Amino acid sequence: MLRLFSWHAQADGSGCLVVLDRRSERRVLHELLDAVRSGESRALVVHGQLGVGKTVLLDHLVDQAWGCRVERVSGVQAEMELAFAGLRQLCESMLSGVERLPGPHQEALSTAFGLCGGQPPDRFRVGLAVLDLFAEVARERPLVCVVDDVQWLDTASVQALTFVARRLGVESVAVVVAVRESADVPEFAGLPELAVTGLPDEEARALLSSALVWPVDEQVRDRIVAETRGNPLALVELSRGLAQGELAGGFGPVSTAALPSRIEAGFRRQLRQLGADTQRYLLVASAEPPGEPLLVWRAAQRLQIGMAAKAAAIRAGLVEIREQVLFRHPLERWAVYQAASAEDRRNAHRVLAEVTDAEADPDRRAWHAAQAAAEPDEDVAADLERSVGRARERGGLAAAAAFLERAAELTSEPARRAGRALAAAQAKQQAGLPSAALGLVSVAEAGPLTPLQLAQADLLHARIAFTVRCSDAPPLFLEAAGELRSSDVRLSRETCLEALSTAMVADPTGGGTSLQDVTEAARSAPPAETPPRPVDLLLDGLVARFTDGYAAGMPLIRDALRALREHICAQDALRWHWLACPSASLAWDFEIWDVFTADFVQLAREAGALAVLTEAMSSRILVHTLAGELEAAASLCSELESVTEATAGPPVPYAASLVAAWRGREEEARRLTEIATAEGRRRGYALGLTITGWAKALLSNSLGQYDDALAAAREIGEQHPEELGMPTWAAEVELIEAATRSGKPEQAIASLERITETTGACGTDWGLGMAARSRALMIDGPAAEDAYCEAIDRLARAGVRSELARAHLVYGEWLRREQRRTDARRHLRTAYEMFAAMGAEAFARRAARELEASGEPAPRQAAETTSELTAQEMQVVRLVREGLTNSEIAARLFLSPRTIEWHMTNIFGKLQITSRRQLRRSSSGGVDPMAHRRSSR
């Protein structure tokens, strides 16, 4: 049985479980709704333990109850003694229908709900009155009553609802109640039931993975899944309380965070009732994350713990022995560890280290030995250092940082301690933990460091500064690069490249170093070795571009991008893709930008490199947006928000504001641009401010508010005159359209000259297509038509679907004004269908208005058909068009193949197609240019 959930984080740090499948349970709910819509009535009791997902299923029921009136209430323990309190709350919005009931029923409800005085009504009569009220309300449309936590409902309300549930017939009414255990509310015995149990292992692992931002060791994951018995809430709550190290193979101190007081007190009371040896056995088991039974038992024997102690733990129900030693509840594991003294914990880790095979699992042995050490120990620290590479492979950067940090703590020799602390700081920074990294840098700087290490520490300070305030970073990078000239030429050049890349996105108006200053400093970097590395080519290309112009810099930049794509290892790719991505957009090379961003996101996820994952996701969102994949872009925006919350980082809604603008969500776009602008100014992040300005201009153009669009685009050039790559050009393109549409073409002349220069030097279909479209807006006659046609041809080949749709739109508008209505309708219809398919609502409305003005009503059904697809279904469609199988799509989306099959069935039904081939062609808008672009790689 397929049951799958996903964890969706909220802006305030909380979150909610969202049901993604639970196929059999959903089928029961859907059948109930179908019956009610067809005129039947149904009752259903949903039961299952706390956190198993009852409320999530009720949420799904409510969401799917289209065409129905839904009334919902939850039992409140504090109101259990208030007769009819729950029923009154459920019926509150229906009380206007009481007047249509027979007199006795009116009186019964009015008295029961305290609306008038009188004798306490007979509960049988109240039940009849409620049934009558429900039936009356359902005359207008089917009624679905949902009651959660019935065990906390007052007895009078429970009895009345039971009466109604047992007497439903053909009123088009559903009564659905949820309770932890059906025995808790015996009144509902005999009614149809839906038992909600824990998730099977496969789906529980998927849920745990969706709730985690950090990489998790497979053994630790399997142990958590087993101990939670697939309880979704337990999986999510436990994962939120674990540190990176605890998930990365258990290579982190076992959490001693305080449990909720009542739970902790209960666990400790039970522990105190056990013998000392049993408590020590439980401690050993709690200190071994994978919970291998034989290993735990061998360690216990080293502490002279006998079989009787183990049996007592099992008999008490605290643990059970299967493939792993499993605690009854995962929180009990942490409670056991927390209750032990520091000396007892060290002893447990000592014996675990002794019995762990040094050849089969040297990393775990080294970690246990480190946790057992009470004072510096060079042998243990060296073992930890040797395990760093393997730890990174198993648990990502967090595991590597945990090993290095503990190794530094166990090192007594000052210089070696400083070096290990510096290495740990570097890993922490890459893992997205700047505060922890800064603390370790301070530890390193307290010890003797070599000149090279001092420069590396300064480099780390610069990288951390960039995450706080961008404009502070370039001079720090330049200082570090100067210190490295004599000791490490390669690293000096790399640091110059980092200085240049940060200056490209930083705002110098607050007193920071300008892009020109950094470029001049980078120009004096030591010469590259022969043959030059890809990063050397990129540095030289960017320097040439910003000193000698596009024509001089583009050949080197293209060579660098080609070399980065073909001749760079995964570790270096993770380091340099964050610069390769904007450089690809700088070169107007959409295909390679697409490849780099996809690889960048995947590499950052696999490594757990959250410091760069947000940048990777932001770049990928821009690619999705320009490709017309707005649903995919919106989905990635949600994931990006979760990552920033997990790292306690500042909000980064720059790309999200652009997505909202493209989707025509005016209120959302303006809210996000306001947040992004404030954050961009705080950080001195000029690129972010440029993106939000672009979003403002684009939104205004889509709404036909051309004066506002012109003002927003001009503001970018006035406040941030230095070129920041593609977002700057995009704003120039918006300015050209706004100026021509508002009757001020003279204000677009300079922008067109810059666009023409940059795209001419690059020579790509994307760039030349955008230049042709912009040029067409500025001229008339046959030359304008030639330019429009060139733009459409080139943008179609480039796969930039959103800009292609706009080219059809402006060409159609021009044709209509030339009185060529038949030709205009063809292009306006194409634009409308493309915008509707991708979810660009405001542009679709603009195209519809023009189409109607040309004499043809817009085919509105196309937009409605597309909107039926959910965000997840749109993701599946996108991946099908890439040629992925169901299994491959499941792996990409962290779902099961059966879930994908279910989505495919829904998609086929909604789009009224019967094959994957039709899906690749259909699209809610015709053939997908992206499919051709990807297949031609």
List the topology elements.
Blueprint: E1 5-9, E2 15-19, H1 23-37, E3 42-47, H2 54-64, E4 69-74, H3 85-91, H4 103-112, H5 123-137, E5 143-148, H6 155-167, E6 173-179, E7 193-195, H7 201-211, H8 218-228, H9 232-240, H10 244-247, H11 261-272, H12 276-287, H13 293-302, H14 307-315, E8 319-321, E9 325-327, H15 330-339, H16 342-355, H17 362-372, H18 378-386, H19 388-409, H20 414-430, H21 434-446, H22 451-468, H23 473-484, H24 489-505, H25 515-523, H26 534-548, H27 550-566, H28 570-586, H29 590-607, H30 610-626, H31 630-646, H32 654-662, H33 666-683, H34 686-702, H35 706-719, H36 726-741, H37 749-762, H38 765-778, H39 781-798, H40 801-817, H41 821-838, H42 841-853, H43 860-867, H44 871-881, H45 886-893, H46 897-911, H47 916-921, H48 929-935
Parallel strand pairs: 3-6, 3-7, 4-5, 5-6
Antiparallel strand pairs: 1-2, 8-9
Helix pairs in contact: 1-2, 3-6, 4-5, 5-6, 7-8, 7-9, 11-15, 12-13, 12-14, 12-15, 12-16, 13-16, 16-17, 17-18, 18-19, 19-20, 20-21, 20-22, 21-22, 22-23, 23-24, 24-25, 24-26, 25-26, 26-27, 27-28, 27-37, 28-29, 28-30, 29-30, 30-31, 30-32, 31-32, 31-44, 32-33, 32-34, 33-34, 34-35, 34-36, 35-36, ...
Explain this structure.
- The protein has 937 residues and is mainly alpha-helical.
- Helix 6 links the parallel strand 5 and strand 6 (173-179).
- Residues 1-5, 7-20, 253-263, 861-867, 894-898 and 923-937 have low confidence and may be disordered.
- Mean pLDDT across the residues is 82
The end-to-end distance, rounded to whole angstroms, is 39 Å
Q: Portion of residues in helices?
A: 55-70%
How large, in whole angstroms, is the Cα Rg? Answer: 32 Å
Helix and strand composition category? mainly alpha
Biggest sheet layout: 5 strands, parallel
Overall number of strands: 9
Q: Please state how the strands of the largest beta sheet are arranged side by side.
A: 4-5-6-3-7
Q: Which strand-content bin applies to the residues? A: under 5%
The stretches of 5 or more residues where confidence is low (pLDDT under 50) are: 1-5, 7-20, 253-263, 861-867, 894-898, 923-937
Report the total helices.
Answer: 48
Instruction: Please tell me what the overall shape is.
Output: flat
